[in-house]
Amino acid sequence: YQRRVHGNPKNKTYHNFHGLILNALGDSMEAVQAYNEAIKLDPSYKEAHSNCGQAYRDWGWEVKALECFAISLKLDVNYLPARHLRGFLHFCLGHHLSCIADSTRVLELDPKHKDALYLRALSFHNLGQFKSAIQAYDTMLKYYPDDPAWYNRELCLSLHHKMNTNPREVNWDRIHNPYFKEAWCKRSIPSKLKGYKPQPKLDPNIPDVGKASRFGSDALNFILLIEAADRIGKRIQLKSQGFLPNDRQFRMSGLAAIESAQWLRKLWNGEMETVSGSYSSMNSDTHKCSWRDYMDIIVKWRQLSEVNDPVWWIDLLPEDLFVEGFGLQTPMITGQLKVPRYYPYYDRCFQVIKQLIKDQHVLTDDMADKIDKAKNCDEVWKTMKRDFFVISPCLKLDTPRGEATSFYKPDNDQFMEGTRITIVQKPDEHGFQFTIRTPGTPTRYKHYYEQMDILWDRITLEARKSIDQRNGQHLQELIITFYFFWVNFQPLTRGSAACGMIVLLSMYLANNLDLQNLTKTGIQTDWEGITTPDYRDFLEGVDFWLCDHPSADWFNDLPPVEDTLTTFRHMIEALNHDLI
C-alpha cells in the first residue's frame, strides 16, 4: 500500500487502507497520519474519521478519539461503525449509560449486531440494572445460543440475589462452581459445562439499583468517601501508550484502598487479631488475620467494578487445572501486531531472553553466537528451530547479594520461578507470539505464599511499633517488596497488576502517608518487577516511591467504609454515583 500511495497520492481510499494496515500492525500514530492524509483529500470522508478515532482509542487518547467519532457521526448520524466504536470507547472509559445509548442505536440499525448486544447487556449489568441486563443477555443468546455471554448472565443473576447482602459475608470465589469459573476464563462453549446448577430466576421483590445514589442518613459519609476515592483512585492511571482512563476503575481503586487501609489500621493498632471466615477465600473458619484476607477486600472490589473480567484466585479453580498449571498470558507481539500497551517492553524482554537462554537451554557454540547476534524473534527462533521459553527468575528474601551465582534452574532453591518469556511461531499469521506467561501451580503457589507470609509478618511487626520507634524508610521498603512479590506471584486470573497498585495506595494510607506519585511516564512497574530477579534492584528502580511523602491526615477523618457501604447495592451505588 505504500507503493500504491506513492504512486497515486490523490487517492483517498489508498490512504485510508494504508491507515488500517498500520493500525493492525500496532503503529497507531502512523495510522493517524495516513487517515489525516485521506481527510485532507476529502473532509467528508466519514470512514477515515471513524478509523482515525479507533487508532487514537488504541493508543489511549480518548479525547481525540471522541472528537473523531463525533465528526464521523455528524457527517452521517446512522454510520454504524462509528456509532459502535464510540459505544465501545464509552464502555472502556466506564461511561455505561453513554455506551447503552450508542449500542441501542446500533441495534436499531442492525438488531443482530453481536458486539452491540453484548456491550448493552454488560453495561446494564455493571450498573445494577438487572432486569434490563437479563433481557439484553436473553436477546443476545437467542441469536447466539452458544456465546460465552451465558456466563455473564449467570453471574448477573447471582449478584442480583445478593444485592441486599453484606459484602463481608460473601466470597464470590467460594460461592461459584470451580468448573464454571474455569469455563468462563477460557470462554468455553456453555453447553459443554457439566454438573452446574443454573442460578434462580430474577426475584421481583429485589429492586434494581436506582439511577440516583442513596441519600439518607449516611449521605454525608457517602459523599466524603466518594470524593476521597476519586481523588486518590485516579493515581493508578498508567502514563503509557494504550491505557485509557476509566473513571469507574479509578473510583473502585480509591474505595478499595480506603477500605483495606482502614482494615489494616485496625490490625496494626491491635484492635483486631482474627477475622471471620465468612468473606475469606482462604479459610471459612475464624482465623488469624493474614495477607490473603487483606487482599480479599481489594479483590472483591475489583470483581465488582467490571463484570466482564473473570477475576478469581487461581488456587480456587478446579484442582486438576491448578495442578496442571493455569497459565496467564500477555502478548507484546501477536502475529505481526505490536500490542500498543506492552510492546514498549519488547526490547527489555528480548534482552532477558538472550541473557537467560544460555543458562536454561543447551546450545552449541554456533547457536550461542547466533543468539548473541540475533536482532528479533525470527532470528532467535531460526536458531532454536522450535518454540521455547526462558524463565525470568525471582530471588527469595534475604538471599545475600553475590551468593546466587546462576539464574533459575530447578535445583537452585535461591530462586523461585518468576515469569516465562516465550517465543512461539505463528505461520498462519506470518509472525510470532512474543509473550509473558505465568503458570499458576501448587509448587509455585507454595513458594510465593512463604515469601508473602514472611513479608506480612515483618510489615505488621514494624507498623505496630510506636511512631518514635518505627523505621519509616524500612516500612516503605517492606511495602514495596510486598508489591514486588505480588506482581511476580500473579495469583489472580485477571487484575493482579491493578490490585497491586491498590496495595501501595492502601498500605501507605494505613501508614499515614499520601502516595501521590504512584506512576511515572513510560514505566509499567509490574513489568519492571517481573523482569527484575532481585527485589533490591527493583527497590532502586522505583525510588520515586521511597521519597518523602505528605501525611495523610485527611484519611483519619473518613467514615468506615464497612459501616457506610453495608450491602452490594451500596457498593454499586458508590461506583455509579455521578458517573452514569
Could you describe the 3D structure shown?
The chain is an alpha+beta fold. About 55% of the residues lie in helices and about 10% in strands. The strands form two sheets. It has a five-stranded antiparallel sheet. The chain starts with a helix and ends with a helix.
Query: So how many helices?
Result: 26
Low-confidence parts: none
Largest sheet: 5 strands, antiparallel
The spatial strand order of the largest sheet comes to: 4-3-7-6-5
**Average of pLDDT:** 94
Helix content: 40-55%
Task: Report strand %.
Answer: 5-15%
Shape: globular
Rg for CA atoms: 25 Å
Q: Return the structural class.
A: alpha+beta
Which oligomeric state applies?
single chain
Number of strands: 7
For the termini, the CA-CA separation is: 43 Å
SSE topology:
Layout: H1 2-7, H2 12-24, H3 28-41, H4 46-59, H5 62-75, H6 80-92, H7 96-109, H8 114-127, H9 130-143, H10 149-161, H11 172-175, H12 178-186, H13 219-233, H14 247-268, E1 274-275, E2 287-288, H15 291-305, H16 319-324, E3 326-335, E4 337-338, H17 346-360, H18 365-373, H19 377-384, E5 388-395, E6 415-426, E7 431-440, H20 442-463, H21 472-489, H22 496-510, H23 525-530, H24 535-541, H25 561-564, H26 568-576
Antiparallel strand pairs: 1-2, 3-4, 3-7, 5-6, 6-7
Helix pairs in contact: 2-3, 2-4, 3-4, 4-5, 4-6, 5-6, 6-7, 6-8, 7-8, 8-9, 9-10, 13-14, 14-15, 14-22, 15-22, 20-21, 21-22, 21-24
